[in-house]
Write a structure and sequence with these properties.
The protein is mainly beta. It has one domain. The protein is built from 1 helix and 5 strands, in the order E-H-E-E-E-E. The chain has a 3-stranded antiparallel β-sheet. Strands 4-5 form a two-stranded antiparallel sheet. The longest helix is centred in the first third of the chain and has 5 residues. The two termini are about 25 Å apart.
């Protein structure tokens, strides 16, 4: 898992920025202001998106999350 913060990217820029062998799991970007932004890239994409967009505040809080769906081998 790769978590990036303070991206200074817009949504379309994150969508157009692939990381080899990883899938974009979640993102949150500012719409009006510059700087900020967070995203999570996951290898072997076994995850569920967690919607936290309603908790993001343009100038105060940018958060995102994924729920990992892991199985344990015995």
């Amino acid at each position: 898992m790769i978590c990036l913060t303070e991206l200074n990217f817009k949504n379309y820029e994150i969508d157009a920025t692939p990381i080899c062998n990883y899938k974009l799991g979640a993102k949150c970007c500012r719409k009006e202001l510059t700087s900020g932004g967070v995203c999570i890239y996951i290898q072997e994409a076994f995850f569920t998106n967690v919607s936290l967009q309603k908790h993001c505040k343009e100038q105060d809080v940018g958060i995102t999350a994924v729920q990992l769906n892991l199985t344990r081998k015995v």
